[in-house]
Amino acid sequence: MTVRVRRREADDLPALVEVLGEQQPSSSYPLRWPLPFPVEQFLVRPGERAAWVAETDGRVVGHVAVGDLDDGLGPVFAEAVGGTDLALLAVLFVGLDTVGQGVGALLHDAAVSWIRGEGKMPVLDVVPTHARAVEFYRRRGWREVGRLRPGWLPADRPALTLMALDD
């Protein structure tokens, strides 16, 4: 399988909505489904700085984005890692037919490379019940730096795991 990672374009959104919806029942990502707002707003967020898609045979099969930290996450991460030159890795997912084939790693690496090229430290948040995602990040050197319980997180779920990737 040949995978091409490239910058996301507006025309990619319909395919990404489909891929996200198809993989959600097996990954539980995003946690809330259906979303209480258009899926496109989950994919393209305020403060987004860059985003990439993965393609196989011209078909979009995955996504990752990088953004600025909002007023809720920014101070928590800054205190946890002792710095403010941070960028959020977000909305990383791959289609069901590409899980375990390295597509997520390619997307991850593109985002991390971009973040580091900007002179920033990569950070992310993940729902700890998404064990496969947590393990994916740990294998790539991410470390837990804290926990946070945002208002949207259901009471029966554990707090978000906050992670950072050192140089």
Question: What does this protein structure show overall?
Answer:
With 167 residues, the protein is α+β, with helices and mostly antiparallel strands. The chain has one domain: Gcn5-related N-acetyltransferase (GNAT) (Aminopeptidase, 3-Layer(aba) Sandwich), CATH 3.40.630.30. Helix content is 32%, strand content 29%. It has helices at 13-27, 39-43, 73-81, 103-117, 131-139; strands at 3-7, 48-56, 59-67, 86-94, 121-126, 143-148, 160-164. Strands 1-2-3-4-5-7-6 form a seven-stranded mixed β-sheet, sandwiched between helices. It is globular, with a radius of gyration of 15 Å. The mean pLDDT is 96.
Q: Care to count the β-strands?
A: 7
What Rg, in angstroms, do the CA atoms define?
15 Å
Q: Give the name of the CATH superfamily.
A: Gcn5-related N-acetyltransferase (GNAT)
Read across the widest sheet, the strand sequence of neighbours is 1-2-3-4-5-7-6
Q: Count of helical segments?
A: 5
**Which regions contain 5 or more consecutive residues with pLDDT less than 50?**
none
CATH class: Alpha Beta
Any guess at the CATH architecture? 3-Layer(aba) Sandwich
Overall helicity: 25-40%
Please outline the helices and strands:
Elements (H helix, E strand, L loop, with lengths): L2 E5 L5 H15 L11 H5 L4 E9 L2 E9 L5 H9 L4 E9 L8 H15 L3 E6 L4 H9 L3 E6 L11 E5 L3
Parallel strand pairs: 4-5
Antiparallel strand pairs: 1-2, 2-3, 3-4, 5-7, 6-7
